[in-house]
C-alpha cells in the first residue's frame, strides 16, 4: 500500500516513515553523490529529454505495515533519479515489480512514475544508498552515511519479519543495520542467491540483483526470483499466490 494512500493516514507507522522520507530528500551529506545526481538530472539522456528529473535522494516506498523489505543498492541515474521512486523507470525495476506482482505484493506489474497507481501490500522497497552513484558504485563512507536512513525505516516498520537483500552490497548493508542491535552469527553469513540467515527477529534472504547484467545472461530468471519472493512471503506470514 502506498505511503500516500488515504487508508493509511492514521497509522502511527506512517508518521515515522514520512519523517524519514523528508530527511532522505533533504540530505546533502555526500558531495560526490550530490554533484552526480544533479548532473544526471540536468544533462538527462535523449530518450528522457522532455521529462523533469527528480534529481534528489530517493526515499523508500511501500506498505507501512510491511512484513517484507526489499533492499537494493542505489537509484539509477536515469531510473529512480528521474522518477523519484525507488526501482522505477529502469530495467531492474521492471523485473522487480513484475515479480512483486506475480507473488502478490503489488497490484500491478509495472512501475513507471510516482503517480502510476502502484500499491504494495505487505512489502516495502528501499535501497542502501539514496543517491545515484557514478558507475553505480558508492564508496564505503557514502554507504555508511546512508545506513542510518535504513535503520530508521526498519525501526518504523513494526511488522517487519524479512529483509530480502538484492545483491551482495545490499546484503552487507542489511547485515550492518540488523546486526547493530543483535548478535550476528559467526562466521559472518555470506551472500548468495537464496541464502538465508537469522539476525535477531529478522530473517535475511539473499537474491541476485535484478540488473540487466544478471537477467539478460540468465544468472537470474523469473522462476528464481519468484521462488525467493514466495519464500519471503511465507516467512513473513503472508499468503503466497499459486504459481502462474
What's a concise summary of this model?
The chain is an alpha/beta fold and 244 residues long. The protein is 37% helix and 11% strand.
Structural class based on helices, strands and sheet pairing: alpha/beta
Stated plainly, the CATH topology is called: Uracil-DNA Glycosylase, subunit E
Order of helices and strands: HHEEHHEHEHEEHH
Helical segment count: 8
Percent of residues in helices: 25-40%
Q: Going across the major beta sheet, what is the strand order? A: 1-3-2-4-6-5
What's the shape?
globular
Low-confidence stretches: 1-13
Average pLDDT value? 92
What is the count of structural domains?
Answer: 1
**Full CATH superfamily name:** Uracil-DNA glycosylase-like domain
How much is the radius of gyration in Å?
A: 17 Å
Please count the beta strands (DSSP E, at least 2 residues each): 6
Report strand %: 5-15%
Second-tier CATH architecture = 3-Layer(aba) Sandwich
Largest sheet: 6 strands, mixed
The CATH first-level class comes to Alpha Beta
Amino acid at each position: 500500500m502506498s505511503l500516500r494512500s488515504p487508508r493509511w493516514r492514521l497509522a502511527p507507522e506512517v508518521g515515522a516513515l514520512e519523517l524519514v522520507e523528508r530527511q532522505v530528500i533533504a540530505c546533502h551529506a555526500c558531495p560526490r553523490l550530490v554533484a552526480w545526481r544533479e548532473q544526471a538530472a540536468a544533462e538527462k539522456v535523449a530518450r528522457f529529454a522532455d521529462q523533469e528529473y527528480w534529481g534528489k535522494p530517493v526515499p523508500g516506498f511501500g506498505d507501512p505495515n510491511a512484513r517484507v523489505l526489499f533492499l537494493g543498492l542505489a537509484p539509477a541515474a536515469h531510473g529512480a533519479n528521474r522518477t523519484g521512486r525507488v526501482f522505477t523507470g529502469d530495467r531492474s525495476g521492471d523485473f522487480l515489480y513484475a515479480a512483486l506482482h506475480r507473488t502478490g505484493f503489488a497490484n500491478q506489474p509495472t512501475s513507471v512514475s510516482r503517480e502510476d497507481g502502484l500499491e504494495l501490500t505487505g512489502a516495502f522497497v528501499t535501497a542502501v544508498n539514496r543517491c545515484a552513484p557514478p558507475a553505480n558504485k558508492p564508496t564505503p563512507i557514502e554507504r555508511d552515511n546512508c545506513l542510518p536512513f535504513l535503520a530508521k525505516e526498519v525501526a518504523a516498520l513494526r511488522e517487519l519479519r524479512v529483509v530480502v537483500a538484492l545483491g551482495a552490497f545490499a546484503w552487507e548493508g542489511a547485515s550492518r543495520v540488523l546486526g547493530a542491535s543483535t548478535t550476528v552469527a559467526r562466521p559472518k553469513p555470506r551472500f548468495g542467491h537464496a541464502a538465508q540467515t537469522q539476525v535477531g527477529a529478522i530473517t535475511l534472504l539473499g537474491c541476485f540483483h535484478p540488473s540487466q547484467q544478471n537477467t539478460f545472461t540468465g544468472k537470474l530468471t523469473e522462476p528464481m526470483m519468484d521462488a525467493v519472493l514466495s519464500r519471503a512471503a511465507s516467512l513473513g506470514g503472508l499468503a503466497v499466490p499459486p504459481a502462474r
